[in-house]
Automatic annotation (TrEMBL):
Gene3D superfamilies: C2 domain (2.60.40.150). It comes from Urocolius indicus. SMART domains: C2, VWA. This is Copine-8. One of its GO terms (cellular component) is plasma membrane. It holds the Pfam family C2. InterPro entries: C2_dom (IPR000008), C2_domain_sf (IPR035892), C2B_Copine (IPR037768), Copine (IPR045052), Copine_C (IPR010734), VWF_A (IPR002035), vWFA_dom_sf (IPR036465). The keyword Metal-binding applies. Belongs to the copine family. One of its GO terms (biological process) is cellular response to calcium ion. Residues 20-147, 156-279 form the C2 domain. GO terms for molecular function: calcium-dependent phospholipid binding; metal ion binding.
């Protein structure tokens, strides 16, 4: 592989370099305590760039911008190196970004022909630009997106190829087992009922709980079951970060008695079963009071096994398709669409509650649907010409082909339906759930996954049938997202969500949690700035999908297909300036 040529006078990037904000620098945000879902590395190549130099070829650089959620301003994220004299650059320097499935991250790649040492981009020749989202790159076949470069009228600006690769820095999980010996006796009658609580340390010295073992009853020498935890949860990938383990005696009333504690780290634990992993359990209060105090028992690591986790992205890269279906509540409880109080109000100047929810969530999910064709259904309306009530009708009026092109197509069909159907009732969810389940039941090999988005005012008539549909669907490759609009109490929707109590029907429990409910009103800010609230809405709505998806694949033992071989650009002989 040839090292990229550098222009005369080129200085290696650094704080004092010509281009100070370089691509490899991903600024760490100390204020954000959330753990990034995944880090992805973006590689950029171009083909047939414009030639702006008279006596030689262009000397291209790529500059990446990201867009702020609130004010939509473009901010520079980083720059690649400059490659001298080529119209077909394969940039060596990568962009490393945090990737959240539930957020729409808009990206802009600008290309320049570098003519001098100046870091000021206006001093260089513009070669064009490309807009996309991070999800679009990741969601492309083999996570490789090829798009035309645009921005110079009347000129063909060439193409850009962006490839995303998930960084495997922290995709391991650990299977660990512990036992203890001679723990302090805390119960008056009988022995202690011990359990362990694991905490990871934070930058500010505080601790965050990350795991609790089960309680082993009536013993001072417990052997706990092996448990699995992600390295990210245990120490956020920092092998030397302190892990604090507390030992408690379980009490029925919740006032568990503190037996003692010890500290360790991932690096220490990774030595496995050895003399290094026998820990004295110390109770600081007892230690301070009793001169002869030795310890409150010992805890021993019995086993430590590292497993590399497969991720949602592995399946997408391997070709698993995500299919989204939209279902909209057209029942009379939403109010008359000609009245401003209606959730379906046809306001010529702004989106109604349904339109806002549809647009917010739809814009995120469409990046993951390869053909961008969405079946869009309505339920609870009387249809022309005969006024029959339907609980699964095509918004575009074509039951044989209910597909709409993109979210804009769904929005168009929704507004068209509002003008032609009569809002009615009852509110039955089961028919649309069963509609999607029929498709999901026909493809159980992991090649497709189905997501149903139901937008509703939360009033439901067929609770028992809906629960049964959800329990049956929990065995299938599908998830259901319910977005509640309007001011109603959403107790029934919370029950369907099943986060607190797993949903059941006729004594059968759902095999896995497949429903996520989000009340839309929680995301409308007082200032009426819908953009911020929509971003938060989409984040919360989609946050559970990767785990629901993985739970189906794990239960079925389906491994991701290998990704297509990575794109290897042809090697170009680099022409050096004479």
């Amino acid at each position: 592989m040839f090292a990229p040529e550098k222009p005369a006078g080129w200085q290696e990037p650094g704080r004092s370099g010509v281009f100070p904000n370089m691509a490899s620098v991903g600024d760490f945000n100390v204020l954000s305590s959330s753990i990034p879902a995944t880090k992805v590395e973006l590689s950029v190549s171009c083909r047939n760039l414009l030639d702006r130099d008279t006596f030689s070829k262009s000397d291209p650089i790529c500059v990446l911008y990201t867009q702020a959620i609130g004010n939509k301003e473009w901010r520079e994220f980083g720059r690649t190196e400059v490659i001298d004299n080529t119209l077909n650059p394969d940039f060596v320097r990568k962009f490393i970004m945090d990737y959240f499935f539930e957020e729409r991250e808009n990206l802009r790649f600008d290309f320049y022909d570098v003519d001098s040492k100046s870091p000021n981009l206006s001093k260089h020749d513009f070669l064009g630009q490309m807009f996309c989202t991070l999800g679009e790159i990741v969601g492309s076949q083999g996570s490789r997106l090829e798009k035309s470069i645009v921005g110079i009228p009347g000129k063909k600006c060439g193409t850009v190829i962006v490839t995303a690769e998930e960084l495997g820095c922290c995709r391991d999980s650990v299977l660990m087992q512990f036992c203890a010996n001679k723990l302090d006796k805390k119960d008056f009658f009988g022995k202690s009922d011990p359990f362990l609580v694991f905490h990871r340390s934070n930058e500010d010295g505080s601790f965050t709980i990350c795991h609790k073992t089960e309680v082993v009853k009536n013993t001072l020498n417990p052997v706990w079951q092996a448990f699995k935890i992600s390295v990210r949860a245990l120490c956020n990938g920092d092998y030397d970060r302190t892990i604090k383990v507390e030992v408690y005696d379980w009490d029925r009333d919740g006032s568990h008695d503190f037996i003692g504690e010890f500290t360790t780290s991932y690096r220490e634990l990774s030595r496995g079963q050895s003399q290094f992993n026998v820990y004295e359990v110390i109770n600081p209060k007892k230690k301070g009071k009793k001169k002869k105090y030795v310890n409150s028992g010992t805890v021993t690591l019995l086993s430590f096994l590292i497993e590399t986790e497969v991720s949602f992205l592995d399946y997408i890269k391997g070709g698993t398709q995500i299919n989204f279906t939209v279902a909209i509540d057209f029942t009379a409880s939403n109010g008359n669409p000609s009245q401003p109080t209606s959730l379906h109000y046809m306001n010529p100047y702004q989106l109604n509650a349904y339109g806002m929810a549809l647009k917010a969530v739809g814009e995120i999910i469409q990046d993951y649907d390869s053909d961008k064709m969405f079946p869009a259904l309505g339920f609870g309306a009387r249809l022309p010409p005969d006024g029959r009530v339907s609980h699964e009708f095509a918004l575009n009026g074509n039951p044989q082909n209910p597909y709409c092109h993109g979210i804009d197509g769904v929005m168009e069909a929704y507004y068209r339906s509002l003008k032609s159907v009569q809002l009615y009732g009852p509110t039955n969810f089961a028919p649309v759930i069963n509609h999607v389940a029929r498709y999901a039941a026909s493809v159980k090999d992991g090649s497709q996954y189905f997501v149903l988005l139901i937008i509703t005012d939360g009033v439901i008539s067929d609770m028992a049938q809906t629960k049964e549909s959800i329990v049956n669907a929990s065995k299938l490759p599908m998830s259901i997202i319910i977005v509640g609009v309007g001011p109603a109490e959403f107790d029934a929707m919370e029950e369907l969500d099943g986060d607190v109590v797993r949903i059941s029907s006729r004594g059968k429990f759902a095999e896995r949690d497949i429903v996520q409910f989000v009340p839309f009103r929680d995301y409308i800010d007082r200032s009426g700035n819908h953009v911020l609230s929509m971003a938060r809405l989409a984040k919360d709505v989609l946050a559970e999908i990767p785990e629901q998806f993985l739970s189906y694949m794990r239960v079925r033992g389906i491994k991701p297909s290998p990704a297509p071989p990575p794109y290897t650009p042809p090697i170009h002989v680099l022409q050096t300036q004479i």
